[in-house]
Every structure is written in structure tokens, then in C-alpha cells.
Amino acid sequence: MHNNTPRPFTWAPDNVAAFWSMLTEMPLARLSFSRMVRDDLVRLVSAFAPSGARILDFGGRDGDLAEGLLQAGFQVGIHEPTEGRRDRGVFKNLTAHTNWLGFFDPSSREQFDIVCVFGVLEHFLEGTFREDMALLATYCTPGGKIIGTVPLEEALEQGYCLCPGCASLFHRWQHQRSFDKESLTAALRNAGLVHCHTFVIDFSICLGFAAGFKDFPLPEAHVAAPQTLHEALAAARHNETRLRAEHASLQQRVEVLQGAREQLQHLRDTVGEHNLETFKHHVFAAKVLGYALRRVGGIARRIPGFSRFRRACTKFLHMASNARYNRSLYFYGL
Q1: Which of 49, 111, 48, 50 is nearest to 79 (CA)?
Q2: How far is 207 from 67, CA to CA, in rounded Å?
């Protein structure tokens, strides 16, 4: 008889590598974090990195972020421990780029201006966490920065999956821990990165960070950013209230403009009706004048300038009258 009590799955380096190698070949890989928000990540890196900087994508996945950074003009290398991912065909496109630096492991002793760890720290295993954090620091130059994101105060249990075969519980994206500002800052400082900045980024929703061995200014866009999920939600509610007030104000302006439009239309209709009544009198006068001209033959020849006067009257009445009565003027001889 099988034991149906769910039990936590034990992650280890070998099954982590197997998990990501298999996932790479599945459609689920299209939901990769760095693929879905690549352009946003490139803009974030560009805010910290000088032009042409050497950048390491730590945990390069399928090369999506590296490709975006190369297109932005940076020199890019990748640290990807999973062989199944390093063998992916997508990396062939990267190797043809002039700014491609290659794959790196700790034995290379290479250092970079920027080390990117977007959606990486939450995957580090408990038994190797300190070692992995120390490895990040060794890749960073003395004046460089480590830039990344982690899920903000993630409720891990909400991402659990249950295997029906062995009753194992595991996080569907292999997340091992949840971070808040305090725990993230402590982890970075324990790795020797004593200067840390954190900020909330709605990706949605992440705790961003930038850390280094030396102090550095934070870009203006992130200076006043919220630091906790509570602050982020409060800011979102404040923005919602502000947007609702702006929407109500715009709605009132629309209503005022609509009322003014209706008044103008009413005035136009009133003036049109008045002009129509006036024009009817003009038509009646034209009838009388046309009748008189037909009854008194040769009057145009006997009265000097009468033809010019008649043409001027015709032009005036044609321009000043309602369009649907224009033909009547000509019909009555004007």
C-alpha cells in the first residue's frame, strides 16, 4: 500500500540540472522570466552600466537576456551551470556576435563590470547558498556591481506542485526561498557586498537590487521606490486613487464639452431656421422680379447696368442661402 501523505521533494545539484535540462526542451520554457521581460531588464542594466561595459549573465538560461544586452552594445558572457542549456542552439547566434565573450566558470578567474542575477538567488540550494553567493562576488570587479531581481515576499506554497506518482511536493519553478528587503540585504552583505540598494519593480512583482564593494549612486528612477510588498501595495492604491480622481475630472470636462456642443448645435439649428425663413422671402421676391422681367420685354437693355445688378444679386443670394434652395434662384431667372 502506497503512502499518500505529501512530502517535500529534496532538491540536489544533480536533479536540479536534470530538471532545467528537461524544461529547456518544453513549451514551458517560453515562460522564462528573462524572455518575457527581456527589454525591461536591458533598460534596468543600462541605467547602471557604462557604455560598452563587460557584463556576465549569471544563470544565462537560454540566452535571451544575453542577446538583448549584446544588441544594446555591451560585451556579454554567460555563466550557465546546466549543460543541457549550454548546448542549446540559441547560443550559436550569440557566438557569432563581435561582443560575445563566451562561457565562464569559476576557474576562468574573469571579472566583470556588471554581474546580472535576474531571478536567480531564489533558486540557490540551501546547502550551497553561501558558496553560490561567494561565487557571485568573485565575478565582480572591485568597482563593479551585481544587479538582479527576486520575487518580492513570495508565498512559496502557492507555487507548489504535487507529483501523483510519488506524492512529492515541489515548487514548479524550483524556488527555494522567499526574500524581503532585510533578508536580501543580509545575504548580499554576507557575500562581502556591503553597499546595497533595493527597490520594488513591478515585473510583477519583484524586489530589485544593486550591490557592490564600493558605494555608488542609485539612478533617479529607483531612489524613492517602495521597499516592501506592503509599501508597493500602498503605492499602487495611492496611484489608483489618483487615477480615479483624474478620470472623474476628465469625465466632468467631457460632460461640460458635450453640453457646449449641444448648445452650439441648438444655436446652429435656430439660426438655420431663421435663415431659411428669410430665404423664403428672397425666393418670393425673386419670383415677383422674374415675373416682372418676363412681362416687360427688353428692360435689361433699356436700363443701364441692370444686367450687372441682376448678376450681383444672384451671386449674393446664392452665397447667403440654404443649399437646398439654390436651384430655385436659377429657375426663377436670377
Answers
A1: 111
A2: 24
229-295 vs 306-320: helix crossing angle, rounded to 10: 150
65-99 pLDDT, tens digit each: 999 999 999 999 999 887 766 666 556 678 889 99
> Residue 167 burial by CB count (10 A; 0-12/13-18/19+): exposed, middle or buried?
middle
Contact at 8 Å (CB) between 154 and 176? no
Q: Which residues contact 163 (CB under 8 A, 6 or more apart)?
A: 9, 169, 170
Considering 48-57, 87-96, 303-312, the range whose residues carry the highest mean pLDDT is: 48-57
Distances (CA, A) of 278 to 274, 281, 284, 321, 322: 6, 5, 10, 9, 10
Cell of 104: 565562464
What's the CA dihedral at 79, 85, 88, 94 to 10 degrees? -20
Write out the H or E segment, with its range, that includes residue 329.
helix 326-331
Q: Pull the grid cell for residue 272.
A: 438655420
Q: Residue 250 and residue 242: Cα distance in Å, rounded?
A: 12
**Phi/psi at 146 (nearest 5 deg)?**
-105, 120
Length in residues, the chain:
334
Nearest by Cα to 325 from 271, 290, 286, 289: 286
What's the CA dihedral at 61, 63, 69, 75 to 10 degrees? 100
Pair 229, 152: CB distance under 8 Å = yes
Tell which phi-psi region holds residue 326, choosing left (phi > 0), alpha (psi between -120 and 50) or beta: alpha
Residues 237-272: tens digit of each pLDDT: 777 788 888 888 888 888 888 888 888 887 777 766
